[in-house]
Amino acid sequence: MIEYILMIITILGAIMALVQRDLLKAAILTGIPGASIAFLYQYLLAPDVALTQAIVGSAIIPVFFALAVYKTRRVEE
């Protein structure tokens, strides 16, 4: 049952990131599916894959997206 809950959280997190109007919020929300999948891997007894997913999917990718959004913002004149 917990697998289904984690999959639903993953899908809802991805949808939340897609419907955001603010790009910075969307970049931050991309970490939700990554963390949920990391918990799913841990539950399925794959700790090495879970650790990699947690580092990459819920930490590095959102930070890089947020940095890209921050660096490409237009300056209001």
Write out key terms for the chains shown.
single chain; 77 residues; mainly alpha; 4 helices
Q: What's the main sheet like? A: none
**Strand percentage, roughly?**
under 5%
Cα gyration radius (Å): 14 Å
**Care to count the β-strands?**
0
Number of helices, counting only DSSP H or I runs of 4 residues or more:
4
Low-confidence stretches: none
C-alpha termini separation: 53 Å
Average residue-wise pLDDT: 91
Characterize the overall form. elongated
Question: H/E element string?
Answer: HHHH
Structure class: mainly alpha
Helicity range of the residues?
over 70%
Question: How are the elements arranged and paired?
Answer:
Elements: H1 2-19, H2 23-29, H3 31-43, H4 47-71
Description of the structure:
By secondary structure, the chain is an all-alpha fold. Helix content is 82%, strand content 0%. The chain has helices spanning 2-19, 23-29, 31-43, 47-71. The protein is elongated and about 50 Å long. The model has no long low-confidence stretch (mean pLDDT 91).
